[in-house]
Structure formats: C-alpha cells, structure tokens
C-alpha cells in the first residue's frame, strides 16, 4: 500500500471517534482531498468515508459485545453525535439494531449471525457452499465471505463466514428463503497498488433445505460494484480491521 494511504488508514484508526472530513483525510496524506480520495479507492477499493464507516461499525460491535456501556455512550465513543443516526447506520450495516445485537450476543456469536427477523423460523433455512479462486498465488490467505439478501425487505441479517485459506471449502449456513448474493474479500499484494482482492457471486435462489454451490473469483477491486454498498463496506475493510 502507498505510504500516503497508510497514513490515512492509520489516522482513521486513531481518530475514528472524531468528526473527520475529506479535508482531514487529505491532510493525513499530505495530498489534495480529491487526489487522496482517488488513490485511497485505488489502493483499498473503498472511499475514505466508507472505510471510516467500517471502522466505526466494527468498534461499535466490539464495544456492544465486550462492555456494559449504554448504547448512547457507545454511539458517542465511535463518533456519532446522534443516537438515532448511529442506530440507523448500525442496523443497516449489521442487519439488527444495536440493542438486539447485544441481547443476542448472550446466546453466542452463531446466533447473532443467523438471526433474520422475528418471523423467520429454522425450517426456512438453506445454505451456500463453494470455493474461492484467485490468480495472485496467495492461497493461504484467509477469505472473508458474506451473504446478504438482494431485497432488504424484512430486514434480514447478513450471514458471514471466514475461510482459513483460499483453498478451503467454505459454507454459509442458516440463510432464509429468497434471492441472495455472496461477496468475498481477502488480502493480496499487487505491487503497491492494491491490498485487497474482492469477488461476488449471484444472485441465486435459496429454498428451504437447499444447498447452493458457487465459486467466487477474487480480483482487484477497481471494477467491483457492491449490490448493497453499506453492508459491503464492513466486509471490504475486514482484512485491515482484523490485521490478517
């Protein structure tokens, strides 16, 4: 990754709780805001504001799971002056409200991942399985995958899984009936130009009890178009957030 963009990534991690602007990002990179924004997208596949959103949501998720602070306090700690704005954004990105996410966490992380609304029952689930394909040779890099509904009606939660390396068979279980997409991200080395590769498969129909087999091809993110941008932001930032 270019040094200027590393400065911005570090600045976002250190200052995510503040009121960061495009001008601030430019100062971090010592570049004009427009030039910095173009380079940041080329290097990461994300806009600076999208990466900031991902960092804030990941920090909020961790605080909800690991502390007893109020949701209002957590909203403030991750940079939101409005509790309503934080709740709305968290719900859209994660798939459930902050309060529901915290309540479900007491039942285990797998329960958090599989919740899809009060009306959803176990017999409606199917699953998606497959392998990732990549041409950069980094076959031992972990891959993060997320399935999410093409239609957000019903506020179904995103399902996620982590493949230990790119050759492993992965499986995303507990997917409700409907039309779904799969998106994937992994770290790569691209001569300093990119630090992630991304992929997408679908849409495909999930029926009760069905197992859909798909392969996801990982490529540079320049032409990647997420079906649901807010949810994709978190997934695309995962390698940076988890230090993988």
TrEMBL record:
Mention one GO molecular function: sequence-specific DNA binding
> Looking at the Swiss-Prot or TrEMBL record, what is one Pfam family this protein matches?
HTH_18
Q: Which UniProt keywords apply?
A: DNA-binding, Transcription, Transcription regulation
- Check the record and name the InterPro entries matching this protein: AraC_XylS_family_regulators, Homeodomain-like_sf, HTH_AraC, HTH_AraC-typ_CS, Tscrpt_reg_AraC-type_HTH
Report the residue ranges that make up the HTH araC/xylS-type domain in this protein: 6-104
The record lists the membrane-crossing segments as none
Checking SUPFAM superfamilies in the record gives: Homeodomain-like
Q: Which top-rank group of organisms is this from?
A: Bacteria
Protein name in the entry: AraC-type DNA-binding protein
């Amino acid at each position: 990754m270019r040094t200027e963009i590393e400065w911005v990534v570090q600045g976002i991690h250190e200052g995510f709780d503040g009121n960061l602007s495009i001008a601030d990002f430019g100062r971090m990179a010592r570049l004009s805001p427009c030039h910095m924004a173009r380079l940041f997208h080329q290097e990461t596949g994300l806009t600076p504001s999208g990466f900031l959103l991902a960092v804030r949501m990941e920090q909020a998720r961790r605080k909800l799971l690991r502390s007893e602070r109020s949701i209002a306090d957590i909203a403030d700690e991750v940079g939101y002056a409005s509790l309503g704005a934080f709740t709305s954004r968290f719900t859209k990105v994660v798939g459930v409200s902050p309060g529901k996410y915290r309540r479900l966490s007491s039942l285990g992380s797998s329960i958090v991942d599989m919740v899809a609304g009060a009306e959803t029952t176990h017999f409606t689930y199917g699953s998606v399985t497959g392998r990732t394909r990549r041409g950069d040779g980094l076959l031992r890099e972990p891959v993060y995958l997320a399935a999410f509904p093409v239609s957000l009606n019903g506020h179904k939660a995103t399902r996620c899984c982590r493949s230990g390396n790119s050759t492993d068979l992965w499986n995303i279980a507990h997917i409700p009936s409907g039309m779904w997409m799969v998106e994937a991200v992994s770290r790569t080395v691209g001569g300093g130009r990119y630090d992630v590769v991304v992929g997408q498969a679908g849409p495909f129909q999930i029926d009760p009890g069905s197992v859909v087999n798909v392969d996801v091809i990982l490529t540079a993110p320049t032409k990647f178009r997420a079906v649901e941008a807010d949810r994709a932001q978190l997934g695309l930032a995962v390698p940076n957030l988890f230090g993988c």
